[in-house]
Design goal:
- By secondary structure, the chain is mostly helical.
- The protein has one domain (about 10-60).
- Helices cover about 65% and strands about 0% of the residues.
- The protein has helices spanning about 10-20, 30-40, 45-60.
- The longest helix is centred in the last third of the chain and has 18 residues, at about 45-60.
- The relative contact order is 0.07.
Length: about 60
């Protein structure tokens, strides 16, 4: 069995999470675990590519590209 820690979230936030994601996740703990695992899985190179696209789009919008 995996050990766990307890965290505290505001009730309003929990209510909004339940309303929006209640159909996809059995509980808030599953959603939080999923989101945090996805954030930790992010490939640094992929983030660099996203940053590069953002910069290119800004330069294009300014007329430099």
């Amino acid at each position: 069995m995996t050990s766990s820690r307890q965290i505290h979230l505001p009730n309003k936030l929990c209510d909004r999470i339940q309303q929006r994601f209640g159909a996809q996740f059995e509980n808030i703990e599953q959603l939080v675990t999923f989101v945090l695992e996805e954030l930790l899985r992010e490939d640094p190179a992929r983030m660099d590519e996203a940053e590069q696209r953002t910069i290119e789009n800004r330069l294009r919008d300014l007329g430099y590209l």
